[in-house]
Amino acid sequence: MSREPFSKLTSRTFVLSQENIDTDQIIPARFLTSTLRDGYGKAAFYDWRYDANGRPKNSSIFNGYNRETHKILVAGPNFGCGSSREHAPWALLDFGFRVVISSDIADIFKSNALKNGLLPVTVDDATHRRLLASPGIEVTVDLENESVTIEGLGEAHFKVEPFARRCLIDGVDPLGHLLNQVAAIEAYERADR
Q1: How much is the pTM?
Q2: Which residue ranges make up each domain of the chain?
């Protein structure tokens, strides 16, 4: 599947400093009604944004969220823990985020995010603390160089598994990467051995 290639993103951050934000908080199970990837943004962090009657909460941290200017989510440690639902990265992407930065991101969530075009970035504790303490700061995430540049606070580096990195840069998922190799596969099949 094709999607928007990712090489570099400069954006303001949106901070959720809570630890252990699980996939049921990201996208409550009651909204998992489809296998289509679109439309889950409206249910992202639903219980944080709306009361039991579906009315917006006046006290919600998301009342200040602007999807046009805040595409980088800075989250507390152990982000994305809980169930392995692929809907969680779908919801975050549809809500407007392209990157999640934390000091610790759950492995299954990280794998699902990478396969779906959401970049999970794990940074050192000192960088993480600076980001948590500076909501709305401008950050540049450079996937080519695997670096995070924080306005006025310096630079940190991260690692992304090479195949997942290539897929994000090319704007494809793993199947899309294979489909892009069809000509080379067919040439190999035709070659004399």
Answers
A1: 0.89
A2: 8-190
